[in-house]
Write a structure and sequence with these properties.
By secondary structure, this protein is an alpha+beta fold. The protein folds into three domains: 5-121, Gcn5-related N-acetyltransferase (GNAT) (Aminopeptidase), CATH 3.40.630; 123-267, Gcn5-related N-acetyltransferase (GNAT) (Aminopeptidase, 3-Layer(aba) Sandwich); 298-466, Gcn5-related N-acetyltransferase (GNAT) (Aminopeptidase, 3-Layer(aba) Sandwich), CATH 3.40.630. It has 16 helices and 24 strands. A hairpin with a 2-residue loop joins strand 12 (220-227) and strand 13 (230-238). The longest helix is centred in the last third of the chain and has 15 residues, at 411-425. The chain is elongated and about 95 Å long.
């Protein structure tokens, strides 16, 4: 199982080992975004299969970044680790802010997925050369603004800023506060607070910071981070009273820090009309999609109600309230269930009542998490077959248990085969998997009769059945 650690400033070096050479081109795949927006994103990380795995959000609303591989990283194995963690925690493996280059992999990986690409999430990507030169008719406005700025401030110059410039930056924030036009906007005020906090971390070697000075007065500043072939601009601030200072700074920053980068990412517009207008005026090459993949399993699409399955001797059908006494007896038979591999009582969220186990089956089906079949002989419940652990990639696991007094008659094999075939051809799964304890010889023989072996470990034999 993956173990996640909340991201804090002390993890910057670790994050940079992955983000430094990451060519996803999105601002979320940067150390600065994780730290600046940590209170909102609630990011936590782990490392698996040579990849950085970041989980964002809390409780049941967690989403994952696409894995960022290191030199020997295995993205597929990292995605599988995310899926396993999500199955153990009862939630779908939602992968968000997926870069465009990785979307085809997830479309192929997840047969059923709700995919979103919200306009206001998209980052503005500019060719570095365009912002360095502002050449061509489309940049005539920027060139005119720069000309006006140079007329008023002919001696203004751009230079890098370091931790030694903190007093200069502090004075800039005082001046900026006096001109801040969005003080009544909680979002803008919150972003400004976070920007100030980020600037306090100039001693970190991966941050690139610079600003325009008019004499000894700082009148603009920007902070960026290079990730792969993209320079990601985290902060851009300027005193509004200096007409033309913004395009002047944008160009100067690109000229000074843009070497070696193909793209400059000025992040999204947060649905702010003014920001959108400004970012579009700088002529982005494209808006980088951020796909949100919410995988769903086949039950949602193909199973509206638990069907009735017939075999030569048995009927498999939905559990009913009349089955509760017999079902409780089956579930609570500790000796019989020592090979079941799951503690039903421990799995309850609340103290056990007569209806607890029945209600779990109803809730699991409603949530598209499992299908519990009552196995009936002449109408009497004698066992259970359960299709569960949908991995969102076309697989599900099948389990079966028969009451003690009905063992040895082949009922388990008969019911298991019927449920497996329904899963493949009724639910449209690609693969049914199952396992049994190595010490459970009866179960091994049963599974071997209707599935093919698929490996073993110290504890289990594994089996599978394909379409």
């Amino acid at each position: 199982m993956l173990n996640f650690t909340p991201i804090t400033a002390e993890h910057g070096d670790l994050l940079r080992r992955y983000y430094e050479n990451c060519n996803y081109g999105l601002c979320e795949y940067s150390t600065g975004t994780k730290l600046m927006w940590g209170e909102h994103l609630l990011p936590a990380f782990t490392e698996a299969a040579g990849c950085l795995i970041v989980r964002n959000g809390a409780e049941k609303k967690m989403v994952f970044d696409y894995p960022v591989p290191g030199p020997e990283g295995d993205e597929d194995a990292a995605l599988s680790a995310i899926e396993d963690w999500c199955m153990e925690n009862g939630m779908p493996p939602v992968i968000s802010v997926v870069p465009e280059a990785k979307a085809p992999k997830l479309l192929q990986r997840y047969p059923y997925a709700a995919v979103r690409n919200v306009r206001t999430w998209q980052d503005y990507l500019y060719k570095t050369e365009d912002l360095q030169t502002f050449s061509g008719r489309r940049y005539s406005g920027q060139r005119n603004h720069i000309k006006k700025f140079r007329t008023v401030c002919p001696d203004a110059e751009f230079r890098p800023l370091t931790a030694a410039d903190v007093p200069l930056i502090d004075r800039f924030w005082e001046d900026y506060g006096g001109e801040f036009a969005k003080g009544d906007d909680p979002r803008a005020a919150g972003e400004l607070k976070l920007a100030k906090r980020m600037i306090d971390q100039l001693d970190r070697p991966w941050y690139l910071c610079g600003g325009m000075l008019n004499g000894d007065k700082l009148i603009s500043l920007a902070l960026a981070e290079r990730c792969g072939d993209t320079l990601i601009i985290h902060i851009e601030k300027a005193l509004y009273s200096y007409v033309g200072v913004y395009p002047t700074m944008v160009q100067a920053f690109a000229q000074h820090f843009g070497g070696g980068s193909v793209w400059i990412n000025r992040e999204d517009d947060a649905a702010d009309m003014g920001l959108r207008t400004s970012k579009l005026q700088y002529g982005p090459d494209h808006l980088a999609p951020k796909y949100h993949f919410a995988p769903q399993n086949e039950l949602l699409y193909h199973v509206k109600a638990i069907p009735e399955l017939k075999t030569a001797r048995l009927t498999l059908s939905e559990l009913t309230e009349e089955d509760i006494p017999a079902y409780n007896a089956l579930v609570l038979d500790g000796e019989r269930n020592r090979w079941w591999g799951y503690d039903d009582v421990a799995g309850l969220d609340n103290p056990m009542t007569e209806r607890s186990f029945y209600e779990v089956t109803q809730r699991d089906f409603h949530n598209c998490a499992a299908v519990n079949f009552a196995i009936r002989l002449d109408g009497k419940l004698i066992g259970e077959a359960i299709l569960y652990r949908f991995n969102y990639r076309g697989d599900a696991e099948l389990g079966c248990r028969i009451a003690e007094e009905y063992k040895g008659w082949g009922f388990g094999t008969e019911a298991f085969a019927a449920a497996a075939n329904w899963g493949l051809y009724g639910v449209h799964l690609t693969r049914i998997v199952a396992k049994c304890f190595k010490k459970n010889e009866a179960s091994r023989k049963m599974l071997s009769s209707c599935m093919r072996p698929n490996g073993e470990d110290e504890t289990y034999y594994y089996f599978e059945k394909l379409v």
